[in-house]
């Protein structure tokens, strides 16, 4: 765990625990790789100033105390499916390299929470809220909210910078580093492009299904499944046909993953999701779920239903009764069923792409299981 005193107490690096990464203990191996890297970087921060070390402790805590490690898990199986061997000399370096994806994720979440004015993440205060409270509690000058926002921006940027550092310091062979540069570069641009499109549609009020799916494709699918698989495949020097199959699988499962997230954002149990019920509505997220509902309300001449949904989107004061009313409308208009059907269709097409590819076992079976788990989850 991480303390504000600047100390990082963590499991050892995978190379310190037997010298090999293990298919059956991916989560602990990812945690250990992250903790080892972050321990060294926090020491660098302490050399700059203790106050900066305290700030980086908050980033370390954010990374190490939550998350499903989905991205590095997909990357690992992408590598294994392309012929990567657990007992090979580079396996530990691969584990370090793919664990850097969690720092990309940290950047995305910290910035996304700030842009959406989210108060909680994983059942705890978001980074910008935490730093604003620290400012207010200390009685410092200026506005607490501005200090919180500035801190979140800087820590999110630091996470992205450290992700690059971790990838390049992982110990991969030079040829593998060169091969992984393309998908890594594309992933970062796609993630930020999707995030901008999300902000843009909230500002313009674009409720089209086209816009919603484009955001899902680039903000989530590309850096959650598609590119992590591509990263793993590139490290293993996979054949282009396998890379193409991975990308088809990853794009479909990534969008299905986001569609499940959209449903959970409105219908999920806060005790499980870690976010208040209906938070996506208050934040103004223009999801496919809402786009379909608005589209169907217009087609059926139900102007009042359309107006109710439109008024709820982006309303920070939406109460529990308002959330329940929107839930009823989304169900009544068939939007929930339509999204469930889209998730099922995308999962089916993804599994078809997977089954047609020449993927080494046990990676093929593991990726199929991950696809089902990602699209049927409750949090």
UniProtKB/TrEMBL annotation:
Coiled-coil spans in chain: none
A family per Pfam: polyprenyl_synt
Cofactor: Mg(2+)
Top-level taxon of the source organism: Bacteria
Region (Disordered): 1-23
Keyword Metal-binding (UniProt): yes
PROSITE patterns in the record: POLYPRENYL_SYNTHASE_1, POLYPRENYL_SYNTHASE_2
Protein EC: 2.5.1.-
SUPFAM superfamilies: Terpenoid synthases (SSF48576)
Keyword field: Isoprene biosynthesis, Magnesium, Metal-binding, Transferase
Family, similarity comment: Belongs to the FPP/GGPP synthase family.
Protein name (database record): Polyprenyl synthetase family protein
Species of origin: Pseudonocardia aurantiaca
């Amino acid at each position: 765990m991480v303390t504000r005193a600047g100390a990082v107490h963590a499991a050892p690096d995978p190379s310190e625990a037997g010298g090999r990464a293990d298919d059956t203990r991916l989560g602990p191996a990812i945690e250990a790789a992250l903790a080892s890297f972050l321990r060294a970087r926090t020491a660098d921060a302490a050399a700059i100033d203790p106050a900066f070390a305290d700030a980086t402790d908050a980033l370390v805590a954010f990374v190490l105390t939550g998350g499903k490690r989905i991205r590095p898990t997909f990357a690992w199986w992408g590598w294994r499916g392309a012929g990567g061997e657990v007992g090979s000399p580079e396996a530990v370096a691969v584990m370090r390299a793919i664990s850097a994806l969690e720092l990309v994720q940290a950047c995305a979440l910290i910035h996304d929470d700030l842009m959406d004015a989210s108060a909680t993440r994983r059942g705890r205060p978001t980074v910008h809220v935490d730093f604003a409270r620290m400012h207010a509690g200390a009685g410092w000058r200026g506005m607490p909210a501005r200090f919180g926002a500035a801190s979140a921006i800087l820590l999110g940027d630091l996470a992205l910078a450290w992700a690059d550092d971790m990838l390049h310091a992982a110990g991969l062979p030079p040829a593998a580093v060169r091969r992984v540069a393309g998908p890594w570069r594309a992933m970062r641009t796609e993630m930020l492009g999707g995030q901008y499109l999300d902000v843009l549609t909230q500002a313009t009020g674009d409720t089209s299904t086209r816009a919603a799916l484009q955001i899902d494709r680039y903000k989530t699918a590309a850096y959650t499944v598609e590119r992590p698989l591509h990263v793993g495949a590139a490290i293993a020097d996979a054949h282009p046909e396998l890379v193409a199959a991975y990308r088809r699988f990853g794009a479909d499962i990534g969008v299905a993953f986001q569609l499940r997230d959209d449903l959970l954002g409105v219908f999920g149990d806060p005790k499980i999701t870690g976010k208040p019920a209906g938070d996506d509505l208050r934040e103004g997220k223009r999801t496919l779920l809402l786009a379909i509902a608005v589209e169907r309300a217009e087609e059926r001449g139900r102007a009042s239903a359309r107006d109710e949904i439109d008024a709820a989107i982006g309303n920070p004061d939406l109460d529990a009764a308002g959330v329940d009313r929107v839930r009823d409308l989304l169900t009544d208009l068939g939007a929930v069923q339509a999204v469930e059907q889209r998730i099922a269709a995308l999962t089916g097409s993804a599994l078809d792409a997977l089954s047609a590819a020449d993927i080494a076992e046990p990676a093929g079976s593991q990726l199929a299981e991950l696809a089902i788990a990602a699209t049927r989850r409750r949090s």
